[in-house]
Amino acid sequence: MQKKIEELKTILAEVDDLDRASGVLGWDQEAYMPKGGAEARGQQLGTLQRLSHERFVDKKTGKLLDELKKSSSELDPDSYEARLIKVCARLYEREVKVPSDMVTEKAEVTALASQAWQEARAASDFSKFEPHLDKVIDWSRRYAELFAPYDHVYDALLDAYEPGMKTAEVQAIFDGIRPKQVELIKAIAGKEQVDDSILHQNFPEAGQFAFGKEVITAYGFDWDRGREDKTTHPFSTNFGYGDQRITVRVSEDYFNPYLFAALHETGHALYEQGVPKSLARTPLYGGTSLAVHESQSRMWENLVGRSRVFWGHFYPNLQKQFPEQLGKVSVDDFYKAINKVHPSFIRVEADEATYNLHIMLRLELEIAMMEGKLNAKDMPEAWNERFESYLGITPPDDAQGVLQDVHWSFGLMGYFATYALGNLVSAQLWEVIQRDMPDMDDQIAKGEFAPLLSWLQENIYQHGSMFEPQELIEKVSGSKINGEPYLRYLNEKFGAIYNL
């Protein structure tokens, strides 16, 4: 059996190398590639992704997995070998249904779509992106049909990012928390509003990066195994063990976008840097799902980075970096400003209380697209109508509305729900962390994050993607994904800020 596992790992290593090479090209496309390179980059990515797909779904892989599954009953079900066989078999059963030409097609379509999105967003002109979104929607619908029969056409897309979860399950979770979040937002709206004008001053880019690096380093980010670059839309990516990249965008007239994006993407990178090298070059290397991954980025961004105890330690250093802007501003006023609750257009800059509504809106739109009820041409109007319904404001242009996020240009249909699920998981884990580490606030107040990082390493990171998301969350917290801890967190935090 061990010989067959080694044979499988050889195949998986080659597949992983091809995937990581694709990742490098994708990162370069977003960070440095001139716009004229989009067509060639799409062809390159198409070739690499086709080769990776064909290598993985080869009959030899299927035969090895069949033989290993027959022998796996003798293994500890939580062992590395048993989990490797289980995860690979699941991936194989999915990927073998996808024709190679569809893999190539997606890479080529999305490379051009990504470039078109950047140009459309810069010009705030959806028409430049519309034909590309049409192709992404068409591909996604054809992809979903490969997995028929299904409970819902969206299930196949969701499953790619949140293994084992169904559309109806996610909708039920959201239906349970939406009215309570709306109730909180209405209660806050009835109170005296926070003044955040101190955040809308000139904050030179160099100073922002200097302070961000200080915090990122304190969090535990290993600069020997990672780097930070600028891009249009912040993201984190992993090129294999020892090479995790974060990207950010900077606004010199608004404090929030850079720092909280940097902390968010660092949360993703800390997860990847914490996965053991023993899992490298296999499907077990990486986060267990996008929701669990997002729980880490949102935890380090919000539960840590927007907390009062955090700023009790770091605010004096920020004031030294920006003495004219913040020298006379108290830490309490700054804390309230960065946590101001108000409906806003840009998801990545949304406050914690309204953020999930952005995700629920997008989930509805994606489901409608997959059901054939909406097409690309319908999106600006449908977006604005739902935005008005959910948040009470209408985007003034496409850049602040339907074009604000890069995901559809990447073909990432099925992805958005994981953002809100990640919020819920972050608070669910946070309650367990506070139980296990009752002095955690004192540690954060001293700028000491090693104990928190160690807890996450032991309970989340070390498992890589050995467990399905619901399985891992239940293993750590005692229940599957549950919105109540997040609601408790929001009510406690904003109840104090707004005297509810």
Question: What would your notes on this structure say?
Answer:
This protein has 500 residues and is mostly helical. The chain has two domains: 2-124; 167-498, Neurolysin, domain 3 (Orthogonal Bundle), CATH 1.10.1370.30. 63% of the residues lie in helices and 3% in strands. It contains 21 helices and three strands. The protein has helices spanning 2-31, 38-56, 59-71, 80-95, 100-123, 130-145, 155-159, 167-189, 205-219, 256-274, 290-304, 308-321, 323-326, 331-338, 352-370, 379-391, 417-436, 440-445, 450-459, 469-477, 484-498, and strands spanning 226-230, 235-238, 244-248. A three-stranded mixed beta sheet has the order 1-3-2, with helices on both faces. Helix 8 (167-189) runs parallel beside helix 21 and helix 9 (205-219) packs antiparallel against helix 12. The longest helix has 30 residues, at 2-31. It is globular and about 70 Å long. The termini are far apart.
Secondary structure: elements and pairs:
Elements (H helix, E strand, L loop, with lengths): L1 H30 L6 H19 L2 H13 L8 H16 L4 H24 L6 H16 L9 H5 L7 H23 L15 H15 L6 E5 L4 E4 L5 E5 L7 H19 L15 H15 L3 H14 L1 H4 L4 H8 L13 H19 L8 H13 L25 H20 L3 H6 L4 H10 L9 H9 L6 H15 L2
Helix pairs in contact: 1-2, 1-3, 2-5, 3-4, 5-6, 8-15, 8-21, 9-10, 9-12, 10-11, 11-17, 15-16, 15-17, 17-21
- Give the helix/strand class: mainly alpha
Shape: globular
Q: Output the CATH class name of the largest domain.
A: Mainly Alpha
Second-tier CATH architecture of the largest domain:
Orthogonal Bundle
Please give the radius of gyration in angstroms.
Answer: 22 Å
Question: Alpha-carbon distance between the termini?
Answer: 62 Å
On the 0 to 100 scale, the average pLDDT is 96
Which ranges are low-confidence, i.e. pLDDT below 50, for 5 or more consecutive residues? Answer: none
Could you tell me the CATH topology label of the largest domain: Neurolysin, domain 3
> Strand arrangement, largest sheet?
1-3-2
Largest sheet: 3 strands, mixed
DSSP summary, beta strand count? 3
Range of helix content: 55-70%
Question: What number of structural domains do the residues give?
Answer: 2
Number of helices: 21
The proportion of residues in beta strands is under 5%
Order of helices and strands: HHHHHHHHHEEEHHHHHHHHHHHH
